[in-house]
């Protein structure tokens, strides 16, 4: 079973930022799919809750230099 969450993320300014967030989250075990949008200041993450959780996802985004609201 998978879960999807939409996070409000600030600090993404361009497509390169979207790629950075997508790449970093893709390295996290349990993350299945990521859609990042700097225009909408959002990141949609589909993940396996048995392998990761929202806190870990938020930590990766923060470590990449962005802010989760």
UniProtKB/TrEMBL annotation:
Which residues belong to any copy of the HMA domain? 3-69
Which superkingdom? Answer: Bacteria
| A Pfam family per the record | HMA
Q: Does the keyword Metal-binding feature in the UniProt annotation?
A: yes
* Single GO molecular function: metal ion binding
- Gene3D superfamilies per record: 3.30.70.100
- Keywords, alphabetical: Metal-binding
Q: Which InterPro entries match?
A: HMA_dom, HMA_dom_sf
CDD domains noted in UniProt: HMA
What is this protein called in UniProt? Heavy-metal-associated domain-containing protein
> Which organism encodes this protein?
Methylomonas paludis
Q: What is the lineage of its organism?
A: Bacteria, Pseudomonadati, Pseudomonadota, Gammaproteobacteria, Methylococcales
């Amino acid at each position: 079973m998978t879960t999807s969450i939409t996070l409000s993320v600030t600090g993404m300014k361009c497509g390169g930022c979207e790629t950075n967030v997508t790449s970093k989250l893709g390295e996290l075990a349990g993350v299945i799919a990521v859609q990042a949008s700097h225009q909408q200041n959002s990141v949609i993450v589909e993940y396996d809750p048995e392998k990761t959780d929202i806190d870990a996802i938020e930590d990766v985004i923060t470590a990449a230099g962005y802010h989760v609201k």
